[in-house]
Amino acid sequence: MKSKITLKELAKLLNVSVSTVSKALNDSPEISPKTAERVKELAKLHNYKPNPVAVNLKKSKTGTVGVVIPNISNSFFARVLSGIEAEAQKYDLQVITYISNESYGREKQICDLLTAGFVDGVLIAVSEETQRKRDYDHLFNLVEYDIPVVMYDRINVSIPADKVGVDDEKSFFEATGYFKSKGLKKIGIASAIHHLGVGKSRIQGYESALSKTEKPFIAASSRPNVLKEKIQDLLIQDGVEALLCTDFESSLMAARIAYENDLKIPNDLKLMGYISKEVAEFLTPSLSYIEQHPRDLGSTALQLLQNRLDGRSTPGKFEEVIIETTIVHLESSEI
């Protein structure tokens, strides 16, 4: 029995990419005649018809791009947006900002809205809830509407899109290696984002830097009360000498717990976190941190999108740009 089907579903049945299906249906010379025939036969069998709104969108430009931000209270994303805005001005592009508040439902609503023709392209960092659900159909819908998508920061999603992120794994591999090179034996890690792709990468970098004989000390939970107990156990019971923190929340929490337990930083505990420069420098003692260069990340994301809009990118081939991080040593990691 014939039924409506999406590009993503066709691609899954044929075991090819969404981009390949789209090109085949549009008679792209990049696709072999044999593959094109298979795609068209299956599309006909399932009565596939391109969305007329999507077809019309290809013919017009709005001069506007949509930026989806997961959490505006996080200064990192505010600085990414600053980079996006600055780069957009170079091309006379208007930026419309949407905030998902780490909600899958809100993110889906935003993506549905963006398919209505308001924007020429989309920059998105997917929400925490979307990553937990691993449901990315709303992102594939943007692709089906032929709207260029650039994913930034949270890029561990397999969709046909350009991506720009930070080398999270390498950053903590190097940070762990730094403390090891100074002779520290008990090095721990704390995370409130262990369930997200960036959190997993940072923990992986930490674990990779340890030898097979070295014990990992990990405190991870998305529940603040639980995380606080686990960090306290690392500092008091396990007596870690240095602690790496994967995010803003765990960084501040670790500093507070050390203070409450009369642990002197950096004498009793070396501390390093993923935290903004604006906050790190004003703590007492100042907190060493991983600089992610968010403005560069934002400007690069917009540039990738502009290349796609201008036709300077190769159709069907997508770029992944990784921004190098920098370890900034302040008082908390003094040896």
From TrEMBL:
SUPFAM superfamilies: lambda repressor-like DNA-binding domains (SSF47413), Periplasmic binding protein-like I (SSF53822). GO terms for molecular function: DNA-binding transcription factor activity; transcription cis-regulatory region binding. It holds the Pfam family Peripla_BP_3. Gene3D superfamilies: 3.40.50.2300, lambda repressor-like DNA-binding domains. InterPro entries: Cro/C1-type_HTH, HTH_LacI, LacI/GalR-like_sensor, Lambda_DNA-bd_dom_sf, Peripla_BP_I. PANTHER family: HTH-TYPE TRANSCRIPTIONAL REGULATOR GALS, LACI-RELATED TRANSCRIPTIONAL REPRESSOR. This is LacI family transcriptional regulator.
